[in-house]
Amino acid sequence: MNPSTTLDNRFAHPFDQALQLRAGRDEDHWLGCTSPAYANMVGPFGGLTAAQALAGVLAHPKRLGEPVALTVNFAAAVADGAFDLIVRPVRTNRSTQHWTIELRQGDAVALTGTALTALRRDSWGNDEAAMPAAPAADATAPARRRERQPVWLDRYDLRFIDGELPARFEGQEAGHRSLLWLRDAPPRPLDFTSLAALADAFFPRLMLRRGRLAAVGSVSITTYFHADAAQLTAVGAAHILGEATAAAFRHGYFDQTARLWALAGPLLASSHQIVYFKE
Q: Using DSSP, how many helices (H) and how many strands (E) does the chain show?
């Protein structure tokens, strides 16, 4: 979908509505807005903001190839409302293209980022990360709804096999790993923008590990797209399997790693982020 296209809001998916961008002063400039359908505790769901940044790259008239990597750095909390998105191709080679991304609100920079797009080619391949064993999505119960949960969680069908947050936060420490089926709600065919958002649709590992609420915020997240467009099209609107883990919690920051597999087994994407926390 070209985000500059005007959508009929009676029929468009909430995610597609949120991705709508209007052409700005030149081909590098887009005008967008946060979406109340993806509101978080403070500001918008970060996965949506990452998807909006990627949508600006994908809509650029000079874009070459498909996304291979996307990094977004949250320089400040994104406020609800309008934003300017500037995406620039800074180097184009024969088969790869490098991008810079900047999201501004007023005179302040709220997000910086980079992206790599490329013309993919046939090559030897193998998935070294094995897809974990899991019961079918249809045999797994949807996640319980929580009181005062962020609105953006209503936009996803999450079905936990392991590592769901406790019903009540009472300091009951647990492991840091979660395994779950997930997809957009209502169901929507998978593409690069929705995959970028799903890569961030995991609860902060700290809350699971410590069993308590805490002030947290993603500072930087990088998503690597291992699948091409044809593989995403083959997934359609089916659930995908997600696994999230952490390696270290220290000095007010922790890391979070996620992997996303298609039902048939290929690894679609992996992501790594650093998260600020304060208990």
A: 5, 13
